[in-house]
Every structure is written in C-alpha cells, then in structure tokens.
Amino acid sequence: MNELLFRVTHVTVRSLFTLLFCAALFFMFPSPGFGTKQNHGAVPSSQKVSLIKASVHCAHSPNGSARSYFDLIFNQEFNGRLPDDVVSISITGPEGPMEIGMSDFRFIPTKRLFWVMTPGEPRLGTYTFTVKTKTHVLHASDTQSENSPLRMAEPDTFLPAKNARIYPADQQFSWDGGLLLSVVNKRPSFYQLQIYTLGEKKIYQSEFMKETYSHQVPYGTLSPDTHYLYRVRVADHSSWSRIQNLTGSVKIPFRTASSHEYLYRIPEKTDDGFKVSSLNRVNMDAVKITKMMEDLIHQRIPNVHSILMVKDGHLVFEEYLGGYTAERKHMIASVTKSIVSILIGIALDKEMISDPDQPVYSFFQNHKGTRWVDKAYDIRLKHILSMTAGTNWDETTYMHPHPKNSNTGMYSAAHPIDYVLNSKQVTAPGEIWNYNSGMTLLLGGILKNATGMYADAFAEKTLFHSLGISECYWYRHADGTVFVQGDLMLRPRDMAKIGYLMVNDGKWNEKQVVSKDWIRESTTPRIDTYRGYKYGYQWRCGIIKAGGRQIKGFWASGTGGQKIYCFPELDLVVVMTSQVRNNDSGHERNESMLANYILPAALPPSPPRRLAVLDPETLDTYPGKYRIRGSATPGKIPLFAQKWIIQVIRKGKDLFVRMPGGETVQLFPISQDHFFCSLKGVGEYQIYVERGDRGQVKQVIREIGFHRLPLDKLE
Predict the structure, then answer these.
(1) How does DSSP assign 649-687, residue by residue?
(2) Domain spans of the chain?
(3) Does the pTM of the predicted model rise above 0.70?
C-alpha cells in the first residue's frame, strides 16, 4: 500500500514538473498562431526569417514635383493568402501616425507588393509599418535620410529620339547626353530602362545599372511595326529596399520597323531649300544602295546614325538609324573645323581679314604675355589653316583625356586661347603637318578680333542665315571662348547644305555666300598628312578608287566617323554621322561604304573582278609579321597603334591576315601585288604589295577609301 502510494506520488510529481517545464518553454518561445507581436516582421526566433520588408523613397518628376512612395513586400516565407489575409496596414512616421489605411494601398500580386503614394517629399526620419494579418502582427521599418533629386541628361538627347523608327537588330537605347552633355551626379547613380505600350502597359524593365548610359533590349522583346513609349529612371541605389531618391524622365514615343527588309523612299520635301528627287532620276544604282542599307539594318555595319546624298543639286537619299531622326541635331566633332574655314573665307571676302599671309600674333595683341605674341613667332594665318605651324602640339599619341594629350590641357585651361598661344615652336612653319585642334581654336579667336563677333554669331549672320540653318548648338568655355575646333551640333540635312555649298562653288539658291576663289583656295592640297591624303585649309583632299576610276574629292571629318564628302566632278555630296564615343573603326567603316557602295552606285557599272591564281613560290613571299611604318614617329599615329603587329599566314593555297585584335580573315588575290579582304563590322580593304629589287615583299599598303597606311615587313 505504501509502495503503491509512493509510486503514484512519484509519477504525479514527475508529471507536474514535466508540465511546468513545457509551460516554461511555451512562454519562452510562443507560437505565432497565438497573436503575439513579431518585431520587424520576425517569425519565431529559432527561424530568424523576416516576413515583410518596407521601403520609403522620394520620386522626383521631370516638372520638379515630388511624391513619396511607401512600399511593403511580403516574402515567400509568408504562407498566408495575399491580399485576403491582410487585415490592416498602418504607418507611423517621424511625426507620428500617418493618415494612411488599408484601403489606400494598392496590391501587385506578381511582386507580393502593397504600395501607396502621397504628394510631396517624405519627412526625414524613420517610418514603421505595422501589418495585421489573420495570424500575425508584423513590423518593418525604413529610414529616409535625404531628399535630393538625381540629375540625368535632357530627354531630347536620348536615343531613340522622339517618334524615331528602330529596326529589330538595332534596339539600343541610350541616355548619355551626347559627347559633352553627360550628367555626373555626386553620388553613385543607377539607371533603369522601362518600355510601355501606348496603353501604358509595362512590357520591359531592366535592372538598375550602375553608371550605365545605354542598354540593348533583348531580341524579340519588341514586336515589329508597333508604337511604344520608353522612359529612363535614375536612383541612388540598385536595391529596391535601399533606394531613397529616384528621378524619372518623361515617356518618349518611338516605333519599330515592320521588318528587316529595306524599301527605298524619296526624301521628304520640306521648306529648307533642298530640291528632292529619286536615285533613279539621277542615275544612281538603287540596288547597290539597298544592299548597303540591308547591311546597316542587320548591324553588319554598326554604329551609323545617318546617311544623306545630294546628287545633281537634289537630295536623293536620306536615312536615319540608331534611333536618330531628321530633327535631331548631331555632334559633328571636327567637321566643325571645315565650317570655320568657310567663315575665314567669308571674312576675307568682306576684307575683315587682309590676307592668309598675315602674321597670327598681329590678331592677338590683347594676349601679351604669351609666347606667340611676345616672341612674334613668324606663324601666318595660312599655317594655322593648314596645321603646319610647327609647334610641339600632340593630340594623337595619347588619347584625350590623357594628361599628355594637348587637347586635355586646352580644355582644362583657364583661358584656352592663351594655352595655345603658349605652345612652343619646334620646327619651321609650313614644313610638317601635325593635326592640331588648337590651331582651329585660334581661328575662332581671329574671327572674334577681326570681325568683332564670336564665331557662332558671325556664322549665324554670314553663313547659317543664308543657308536657312536655324537649329545648331555651339559649346563655350567659361571665359566665353567658342569651341570651334570640334563642338558644334547640326542636323544632318544642314551638314548636306554645307557640302553642297562647297560643290556649288560657294552658291546656295543662286546667292554667292562665299567666293569661288576661297572654295578653290581652301580645298587645294597643300601638305602631306602621312595618311594617304593631303590637307588644305581645314579640309582634307585626296583621291579615292571606286568603280574602276580614281576620283578626286575633299571632305570634312570628325571623331567617330562624322563626314561631309564632296565630289565636284560627280556633283555629289555624301553626309554621314556615326556614334561619336567608343567607335574606333568609324572612319574606316564610312570610307568602306563610300568606296564599295555609294560611289559605285554613282558611276557606270564596272566589269566584275576576277581572282588570280598564285604559284607556290609567290605565295611563300607574303607570310611574316608587319608593323605600321612610322611607328617611332610621335604625333603621327596613336601610341597603342605603334605596337600593332599584323601577321600574314599561308595555309595551302590560301593567305590569311591576323589582325592585332585576333580576327583572322582571308586575303583574296586580284594579282600578285593586289589583294582584298573584309573585316567584320568594318568592310572591305584593299592591300597593295611593294617589292624590293630581288622580288621580296618590303611593305604592304592597306587602303580603305581615301586612307592609305603603309606597313613594313619585319625581318
């Protein structure tokens, strides 16, 4: 009996202790189903998983207004039904509870997101979100520490331009503002591209990309022959939960082309003074031009923005790519130099400048204290027009903005003209050509001192008004100096007017704008450039081979492949604009199109070329390594190109050339001393061989368009 009582008592006490221990555990680690408060969205501490995240940020609009966004996301660990299981959402801000309730929030099922917007900027401080569900009370918070809009480039510099047409293979969007319009924020910036239907339905959204100013939309995202809208947003962080400020652009309309196929169209007739006609009416081969356009549309020839042709006084071809339109001004870079040459000619015609032989220092007596003025350098106007001043200027060996590039010093100088006038004379004027943007800057200063007007005002009064050019933009230095050496923006149609003025002996619509004598003077070859062509007065001059002929021409040229080609004997002007930045092959690409498509289209058909068959002994003379001639001559070619090695390889009966970047292409023989090859994304080259007395290969000449580059064979 006692033993039984002891056993019962023992079991009861043991059970009581077990019950008390379980109860203690229960209160230490309560079940979420009993309505206990979860701090910052936490589930039982043994799991350490947040069920909700909160974000507060300020959205800044293009019109300067601001809105506050309060976002709440339920993580996948929340097993309830959304939005049905959410009973209430409230927010307590820096100034206390906010007048925001559950009914004010919108819900996006795909993102498990509740959000609400209020006008104006959010108050700085911490915001606590309290969420009651059928099974939880959850908390999350976020702190807004700064309300400050991020800057971006103006939307009228975005690409595609407003109402532009883009092709399926060319769906590149950019918002870098062009060469000199880029906007840099003081803190890291993250950009996002969004694309909408006209009905405002979002169909594409990129991630936020750090300091990225362009984005290629995946092929197939956009449907053909469809109108869309796009906008760009910039934020101060890539993570949604850490964004504090976000700025959005306006939405820009654009459309996609119906297909990859190209259909030639006669240029639109406007009131800008151009007569228009068709390719057929001026006896240009539309088939060759169509083939060129197909290569452009399919991006076999990339980075081209526009091509225009004026033949026999009529605009017969006008096409825009890369999101450009006829209304969009384009950075024309050093094409500006050739326009400045026209302005000098007008000033000479008006006897505001006496003579191209006038000493340069005589124009700058208000710049005493500079070398050119104090030492009365015997450098004449004709020398800076032809870039033969003989100074130590070097903008070729090192690329701008390298500190050893003379342009870098000029742009950063307190007074750019003084910087140029302080360059040292190292050779006699008139003997050596050295590409020198500083000389063109001095031409702008000469115009200012000779005419009493800055170059932009003088151009407007004496040149642009006569041609009906009203849309342009010149960049200035802080001291007022107009950057005439390469920072003008023009519409391609207006570039074509400049070209036709030159081909038409200085006349536009029967008005003599600049004298015929100056046209002849400025385009007369005066000095060798070591690049296969010569230089006049801010115009390049040379001979190009096309259609079995050698054709004389002159042209204006700018970084990346901005071009105005003039061929008086063909009564032909060709304008090209291209990507300015990061487009090292832009010049060669455009010269290839000129030599292989455009000029052959303007000439009578030539016999088809035939390939030669070379014997084994001849084939053995080509293989080896080649290097650009003049590699040891500073200022002639960039430093990075001075080390290039090009290798010719024989494989059986075929020859191949391996380029510095690794691309290997086949050489096709026309004769034992003439080959051609085609580089991806550039086009066709001609290769000419020069031999020594014993028949050995001494060097090859790489020719594309007007450009000829000699390469010595290394022993």
Answers:
(1) EEETTEEEEE-TTS-EEEEEEEETTEEEEEETTTEEEEE
(2) 2-30, 39-144, 155-256, 330-602, 616-713
(3) yes
